[in-house]
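pasting for ref
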Amino acid sequence: MYHTWMRYFTPSPVHHRLGLVCLGVGLQYGRLPTVGPRTLDHHVAVVVSAGSGWFRTADGRRTPVTAPALLWLTPGTAHHYGPDEEHGWDESFVDFTGPATATYTELGYIEPDRPVVPLADATGARAAIARIARAARRGNPLLEVETGAAVHELLVALRRARADAEGDPVLRALARDACRTLSVAEHAARHGMTPAELRTAVRGAAGCSPKDYLLGIRLGRAKELLASTELPVAAVARRVGYDDPAYFSRLFTRRVGIPPIRFRKQQGRAVPGGWSNEIPHPDHPPTIAPHSSTLLDHDHE
């Protein structure tokens, strides 16, 4: 016995230009029928949140599946899978396509060569799929955009939930030391790794090289300093790890598209004492008091 609910959509060519579109969503549980062998022309993420089963790849290898787990069904790749015949499993799935799938694959969020991915927790992924299911109500005028946006959320949630996120501690350490004047080789040595091992870890966790990962953090911090302080560009450069302000300016211009001085003119919001490193809680955003005097009173309570 099994239960199933599913909806399918046909987004317009205009919606496809958004980069990702959702083609369908389903929630199922129980002793579900075997799927395949078959080949699809689009992507499917199947999240198994309870139970167990198996997955057979195109070369005939059979891999056990134990919840929580993710099954990647990718275009042009034959697949064949099913739950345990006696107990079944709980699954939710999302069909999607679009040009952004190529970039998500390059970044490691979609893994065609790894069809069965153990997850540490399926809660975030199921929440994203639930948003798609809610958006799938009949007559929703925002259907295509709302479900497409939720596919982006799903891919992020699945990446965060990967049970083998061994690179994350390395990323945290790199982020902490990003603005120190250390080479990639020196960063690797601090973690007891070779540069090649560090590249592999960062590529697997962040989808880019250590150099690009560190550069992204440095430029982000430089933007914050340019926008929120009146520090000279040379001082900003030193704060983010560059002793040569001319090199920093060239690098900033090449990566950001405008020179540091122009960025400051566009984005500058320097308010003494007004910058905070504390991230507001999304459920309790800060509010602006109706009068400045009230705001000052609150600040001094």
